[in-house]
Amino acid sequence: MAAPVPHTKQLLAFICFLSLLLSSALGATVVCEQLPAEKCAFAVSSASRRCVLENTQRAGRPTEYQCRTSEVVVDGRLPSGLVETDGCVRACGVDRSTVGISSDSLLDQRAAAALCSPACIQGCPNVVDLYSNLAAAEGVVFSELCEAHRANPRRAMAQLQSSGEAHGAPSAGQRDAAAPSPVAPPSESA
What we know:
The protein has ten helices and two strands. The protein has helices spanning about 5-25, 35-40, 85-90, 110-115, 120-125, 125-135, 140-150, 155-160, 165, 170-175, and strands at about 50-55, 65-75. It has a two-stranded antiparallel ribbon with strand order 1-2. Strand 1 and strand 2 (about 65-75) form a beta hairpin. The protein is globular.
């Protein structure tokens, strides 16, 4: 029979475990204003708000960049406290030096091709959610834009640019409808 382990060793091991657990939990806190500019774009704060890179230009001084918390709240099924991975930035063809949040890149063929790529759509739900919501604000369904882009990229971009819905006010039905999230709901069996 093994000799009983003294309680002090068990207590010490338990305290070490708790301190590791607590330090890793505290390390996962993402505050947009504390992120470096090069990690800001496409990050989500621990409060589930998107981080946005802003710039300040002053006469005679270099442009200053600062990360801020936006008012845009991410889909509740997406993780909060997320700094987007370099892999997703590459797969989706997005640029970490993007200032603000804009749907302009949806009008660029190469950007749309990367955003609609299987690697981006299947592996980067945070980026897809952002651009789905940006497209919806323009009166466009992101998944339909991607389908059109796969079928005929030039025509899809021309249709998007000439669409009254993409540049004008959405109809009452579109305005009142919630944009569907491209992120699948969590499995109920898990």
